[in-house]
Amino acid sequence: MNNQNDFKILIIDDNPAIHLDFQKILKIRESSVALNKLNHLVFGDNIEDDLKKSEFDEIDFPAFQIDCVSQGEEGVQYVQRALEQGAPYALAFVDIRMPPGLDGIETIKRLWALDEEIQIVICTAYSDYTWEKTVAELGLSDNLLILKKPFDSISVRQLACSLTKKWRLMQESKNREKILEKTVEERTVSLQKTLAVLEYQSTHDSLTKLPNRTWLVDRMRQEISRAQKHHSMFAVIFIDLDRFKLINDSFNHETGDILLKLIAERLTEATRNEDIIGRLSGDEFIFISVSAEIHKIEHVEHIAKRILDTINKSLHIGHQDIIISASLGISIYPQDGSTVEELLHNADLAMYRAKGLGGNQFQLYTSELQEKCIGRLEKESDLRRGLIENEFFLEYQPQYDSKNQKLIGVEALIRWQHPQKGLVLPTDFIPVAEETGLIVPIGEWVIQTACTQNKDWQDKGIQPFPISVNIATKQLIQPNFATMVKKILKTSKLEPKYLKVEVTENVIINTENVIESINELKKLGVSIVLDDFGMGNSGFNYLNKLPIDQLKIAQSFIKNINFNRSDEVILQAIIDIASNLHLDLIAEGVETPAQLEYLESHNCHKFQGFYFNKPMSAKRLEHYLKI
């Protein structure tokens, strides 16, 4: 069948003449005289006239493919074969009596058993099967009609047209239903995939692909329920990368993202099947260990050390080799908390304790940490208030040249006059200021105050000398740091050559932001001092890369003069390096005549320390200089 108007019709009748008549009627062909006589006997007197009357319908009349069989069993075989070939019959005309085989009723039962959609017309001239009996045997169906003999050609054609069209509509409806079902199925699958993606996105970090806070909190609740049921324990390890913000700001955010992904991969590789690793936020990760040996403290410590070793390996990103460490805080269920919030909070406190001790280590939660945390928050609040209330002030420690026997500069040192605690030294508040970022506004205040004071001394006729200020890491990486210094120099009217900025080796890491800031300061005419030289991990390679003017020998080397031969060797090496590179050199922390004598005998003649003067107020220094 080539188009939607083609239909297959099956004639099941034991009379071959009937086969021919059906073909002639349904194919609208001229009947021979001989056939007309037979038609007259079977269908009545008017068949020839009916054929002539209906010839005008030929144009729109459906094209039927007609197959004829003589027995019911054979008809069943035809229908089965047609189904297997994917070309089912739309309609079957079935004779009620077809001896010696199946009768029409049994044949129809078998046809419908194969194809319940085939339309059936029972052809009979007998009354042995009434309508009631037929319905009783076959059931009431709109796929069944009875055509009594004799019947005319128009009735046959009408039945054929109507029933095949009905069958076609049924097929189209069925196909539409299948298409709809397929569409619904496809959309359901698509929706399920979308929901799966959305669920994954809502529970996993987009950068590292690790479980996020939402997933971790839910999983921790599950672990708490499991632990309660089995009276077991589990450990929560809070991981925070050391100096990540510095690396992120110094390089760029893309480098920071790559670093986080690499760390996530390393942690995942180091995680056993029963362990859980996720990203809490920023540079914070959570490691949950449900090992049966968590009750052993040495097992928890072993896990923490394994995590530290995993993170500490060098990372190659772009053209940089970066070594990063982490601070770990550990809380254990149920002894350190019975809820997710308590466990995370206490692990966080322990992590901050590890970071406060220098990082690259782990700390277990103890109840004392809560008290220390409260103290830290109070100190942070005090710092903010102190900055607003102008509780900070500067003292100045002179620097001398023993060759010329004269003052060559001063270092500005910040102090805090707390209204309740009295005088607070930098060692007690600078770490908190750096951690909270308050060092940036505090540091700006120091530069402003020092420059203004130095210009004031000059205006009072005191011989000009440079003033040194210490610069913290977070200050130096500020994108507008050099611009801020330039503005202060302009407003204070202090010449740049009378300002020195002191930075430590640990501040100077090989990053574009830091190098750019130092170079910009140098272009302004500000001198660069490398403070605590010899104590950092950078080595001496930065001396060739950065515009350093002066090296300041770390106080620890001075303290060990005549006591530690190794430190004396390093001290001599530093003096030689400064001499060979034509760098100015000054020793800080000189407190005894023996230290002074040793340094002078080894070609170091610039000093700062208690041996000469303790830090003093601006007024006292002014008086001292006028003597």
TrEMBL record:
Identify the SUPFAM superfamilies for this entry.
CheY-like, EAL domain-like, Nucleotide cyclase
* Xref: SMART domains: EAL (SM00052), GGDEF (SM00267)
InterPro entries assigned: Biofilm_reg_signaling (IPR052155), CheY-like_superfamily (IPR011006), EAL_dom (IPR001633), EAL_sf (IPR035919), GGDEF_dom (IPR000160), Nucleotide_cyclase (IPR029787), Rev_trsase/Diguanyl_cyclase (IPR043128), Sig_transdc_resp-reg_receiver (IPR001789)
- Where are the 4-aspartylphosphate residues found in this chain? 95
Swiss-Prot/TrEMBL keywords: Phosphoprotein
Q: Where is the Response regulatory domain?
A: 8-164
Q: Which residues form the EAL domain?
A: 376-627
- What name does the UniProt record give this protein? Phytochrome-like protein cph2
Q: What is the lineage of its organism?
A: Bacteria, Pseudomonadati, Pseudomonadota, Gammaproteobacteria, Legionellales
Identify the gene encoding this protein: cph2_6
